[in-house]
Design brief:
Elements: H1 19-31, H2 35-56, H3 66-76, E1 79-81, E2 84-86, H4 91-99, H5 111-127, H6 137-152, H7 165-172, H8 179-193, H9 199-203, E3 210-213, E4 216-220, E5 237-241, H10 242-255, E6 264-266, E7 272-275, H11 278-291, H12 301-313, H13 318-325, H14 330-344
Antiparallel strand pairs: 1-2, 3-4, 4-5, 6-7
Helix pairs in contact: 2-5, 3-6, 7-11, 8-10, 8-12, 12-14
């Protein structure tokens, strides 16, 4: 037996979802999606729609046949020919895509961008339970060979410069004792010293997750890219000690922030504004690097890569590094930490070592 249903509440059909349930599902899916990931997906799908409309003369409609994906790849990937590097996107379509704001510049896409566009299209088909053209054998083979062709030509993924300890000290030296200077010093050291936080983790940092301890602070990273379910783990606790703790204390005292976001905008006249956005974290890093006269391509990610690279240079344990950064991929962390450790390795000076000398 089951309780009687109130007259105003209609019984549901078990084999189908009503409109209200579908809307609720869509809202939960959107809320549980990373803002940056959602923005990148939307951008990629807008590009697909624009490219398809210009290339085929009508509106895009899923599912796409595999031939369209193959065409997309050869339109956007460079290949070696007798006349040099070429791709098949007609010049007038390329120009139209740039003028409409769908592309940043003329020419072939970076390989990482091309792979991301294909992955987003694949996800769109998967979510709608449609036949996925990106799983076609020809598509998969062409993508694999394209990646190898780029590697053979020496085209490597572009990485931002790492802000290791020495360049970080240089940009911290540009932070004066003004409110803005105190904020930037606290922000940079918070991001770096707590394990190389991503820019969204810095902009979303909230004082309710900050706990004062005798040595400084502990910040609880309740949500991150690698912990989107908010699971309680020991490594969620990020210590902020020494210079990082001192800088954060100075900022909190000067700003008088007692609740809400840790890092705020500073308006003209030194007035505190609203919370910083993700892009503001990137802008602060780039501006401070410019003031310090650092040469290279730096971004907010430079703090994260710099932390891991410096940890490798100082021969920190891999497990400890990963606990601080939150990385789940050993290969990713090794890529940075080995780059840092290589410069201090005795093996790099093997030719110069005296006979019989053993590398510690």
């Amino acid at each position: 037996m089951y309780p009687l249903i109130p007259q105003k509440t209609p019984a549901l059909e078990p084999a189908a979802l009503n409109d209200l349930t579908q809307t609720a599902m869509d809202e939960l899916l959107r809320e549980g999606q990373s803002r940056n990931t959602l923005a990148s997906y939307r951008s990629a799908l807008r590009y697909w729609a624009a490219w398809y409309g210009l290339r085929y003369g009508h509106q895009i409609e899923l599912p796409l046949p595999a031939t369209c994906v193959l065409q997309f790849i050869v339109d956007h990937a460079e290949r070696t020919t007798a006349n040099g590097l070429m791709s098949e996107l007609p010049a007038e379509i390329d120009q139209a895509l740039v003028e409409a704001g769908y592309k940043g510049k003329l020419g072939a896409l970076a390989h990482n961008t091309l792979a991301h566009r294909i992955a987003v299209l694949s996800k769109a088909h998967q979510l709608q339970a449609l036949k996925n053209p990106c799983h076609d054998a020809q598509v998969r083979e062409l993508l694999s060979r394209t990646r190898k062709a780029y590697a053979r030509r020496g085209v490597l993924p572009q990485k931002k410069e790492a802000l290791t300890k020495d360049p970080l000290q240089a940009i911290l030296a540009t932070c004066d004792d003004s409110l803005r200077g105190k904020r930037d010093r606290a922000l940079l050291l918070f991001a770096w010293s707590s394990g190389g936080r991503r820019r969204s983790e810095v902009s979303n940092a909230d004082i309710k997750f900050l706990k004062k301890i005798s040595q400084g602070f502990v910040y609880t990273l309740a949500y991150s890219k690698t912990n989107q379910s908010g699971m309680q783990r020991p490594e969620n606790e990020k210590p902020l000690l020494g210079a990082a703790a001192a800088a954060l204390s100075a900022w909190l005292e000067a700003s008088k922030i007692t609740e809400g976001r840790l890092f705020r905008q500073i308006r003209k006249g030194g007035q505190l504004g609203g919370a910083l956005g993700d892009a503001s974290v990137r802008d602060i890093v780039k501006k401070r690097c410019g003031l310090a006269g650092l040469e290279g391509d730096f971004s907010a990610h430079s703090l994260r890569s710099g932390f891991v690279t410096e940890a490798g240079r100082q021969n920190m344990a891999l497990a400890d590094i990963m606990a601080m950064t939150g990385h789940h991929s050993v290969a990713t962390v090794l890529g940075y930490s080995r780059a840092g450790a290589a410069l201090s390795s005795g093996l790099a000076r093997l030719f110069d070592l005296a006979p019989g000398f053993r590398i510690p």
